[in-house]
Amino acid sequence: MRYLDRTLAQAAAFFGWHELANFAKHLPDDSATVRAQDKDAALFARDIQRAAILADIYDAVMMTAHLLAKAHGGNGEMPKPYPRPWKDDGSRIGKGAIPISEFDEWYYGGD
């Protein structure tokens, strides 16, 4: 409904059943219908999961480059892991939340 901006009955009348079936066949990964059909695949289709996998790949590539450089006589520091906002290990980007009472002054710049 959020993609078509219509109810199912309205969409069938407006687009026709053939187009509605074609639309349902090609739903994006973040739709509730796709998540309900394949729960295991839906876990990897979420943006946060993709970001975690990409961060792991980045760390592996950087570690491989570091090990190759050390093997060929290079002197370098160990690469730091890619910052992950969901992981609270000191590499977090940003600070805690601002209190609601101070938000307007912070956002609008105060008087």
Number of domains: 2
Shape type: flat
Largest sheet: none
Q: How many individual helices? A: 6
SS strand fraction: under 5%
Count of DSSP strands: 0
- Measured as a percent range, the helix fraction is 55-70%
Give a short synopsis of this structure.
This protein has 111 residues and is mainly α. The protein has helices spanning 8-15, 17-25, 32-37, 39-45, 47-71, 100-108.
Write up this protein.
This protein has 111 residues and is mainly alpha-helical. The chain folds into 2 domains: 8-45, no CATH class; 53-108, no CATH class. Helices cover 58% and strands 0% of the residues. It contains 6 helices and no strands. The protein has helices at 8-15, 17-25, 32-37, 39-45, 47-71, 100-108. α1 packs across α2. The radius of gyration is 24 Å and the shape is flat. The relative contact order is 0.06. The mean pLDDT is 82.
What's the helix and strand layout?
Blueprint: H1 8-15, H2 17-25, H3 32-37, H4 39-45, H5 47-71, H6 100-108
Helix pairs in contact: 1-2
